[in-house]
Write a structure and sequence with these properties.
Elements (H helix, E strand, L loop, with lengths): L7 H24 L9 H37 L11 H25 L1 H11 L14 H18 L3 H19 L6 H7 L6 H7 L4 H4 L9 H6 L23 H10 L8
The structure holds zinc ion.
The site of zinc ion has 6 residues, from helix 3 and helix 4.
Length: 269
Amino acid sequence: MRPFRIVPFFDAVGMPLVALVGAALATVEAARPLRERRVRRAERWVTNARMGALAGAVVRLAIVPTVNACARGAAERNVGVLRWLPLPRAARAALGFVALDYSMYLWHRALHGVPLLWRSHAVHHVDRDLDVTTALRFHVGELAASVPFRAAQTVLLGVGPRVALVYELAMQAAALFHHSNVRLPARVDRALARVFVTPRMHGVHHSTAREELASNWGVVFAVWDRLHGTARWRATPPDIGLLAENAPGGVAPSAVAQERGRGLGRVSA
Ligand SMILES: [Zn+2]
């Protein structure tokens, strides 16, 4: 496994496309914001960009090479549940994509349910506003902890390298979209939320209200939340952030206090 090796499909095609999606969403959310900002954009963007640079390094230098190597290894040894099913190649690829997304739904629930994981995932929830940059705001601890999970997920399911990398890109584009502050017409958002996780839907997951925080765990598809009865949708956005009473013990309360210390007043910048 050589982490610095260029993966042409991922690095030369996929990532520039994801960056374009991010730039387009940032442009649209500036013109059609869903929620009023509470914190000055520059203030949050510096923090989120700094965290995003570290997170991006872990994704590219640890997660992508691991997933790629595991997918190749599983293919060479013909292991994984999907390879043992008598399915046409295209159906297996589609099923692999869907199964990866379901396992990420379960991983997100674990991030909230396992105290050690929640301590690092809470850093993502501390953001007082949501926009495309929140999709970059992940603690390196959370991403490092996901490496063995992502390896197991790839090998046990038996997804091929192409499907694994396409899912990685789709997940990043989906995260940019559902964290974005883009105001889709409510009826469009609601219709879309029957299948995909939308900005209004994921906004509910970032609510300060505990029962809303425990909903909408999906990444790309909203169907897992529907199947598990954890889907919530509201037209009016909730208050965004993590209150001290919902924060894990240890690391996060200081971050919460720091963010709250900046005040809850709304700003326009
Ligand atoms: Zn979460």
